[in-house]
Amino acid sequence: MAQTKIIVDTNSYFRLAQNIHPLLCQAFGSKDYTLYMHAELNAEFRDSPRLQASFSWAADPEFRENRKRSLSLSKAQKAEIEDTIEYLWAYVKDEFHQKRGKGPSMTDTIIVATAAVLEIRVVTDDQDMIELAEEYGVHQVSTLELMKLMLDEGHIDLDKIKQIVAQWQYDGDTPYARWKQEYKQLFKHAPPSG
């Protein structure tokens, strides 16, 4: 069976990888769902002292090894992704950066462009990235929705989800303002406290 590829953004990767390891390139479930990250994530981590300080565990050899393999792309796909990045980045600069003073980063834009060209889902909790994905018809899911899929497919259990969510709260790294409502809607009980 062919993989059902899903690309994970930086924030979602850091919210999950420490507790679900190996997170990437491990097929699970009835459709061989397989999570990938974009190679840009390694560069973003390498170049960000803030990320390195917040997620020091990600520098450990087993996590670096798991991030080595990213999506395999043909020459034609790479060219189409480059064109899409250029187009999306112009939109981001006009509609987000100039009008709002903030918006998706270049890495976020690259991830959305890659998902658009490959017609795969992107996992993100970043509201600007969600808006960009929706604007261009890219199927996106939240980190909580991904965990619900993993639960439904027997990849993780509810105790693991509770552990992850409690750690988010303990670390002060919860996804977005309405995450507790989404958690309750998906899992039919209130989230654990951190």
TrEMBL record:
InterPro entries: PIN-like_dom_sf. It comes from the Bacteria. This is DNA-binding protein.
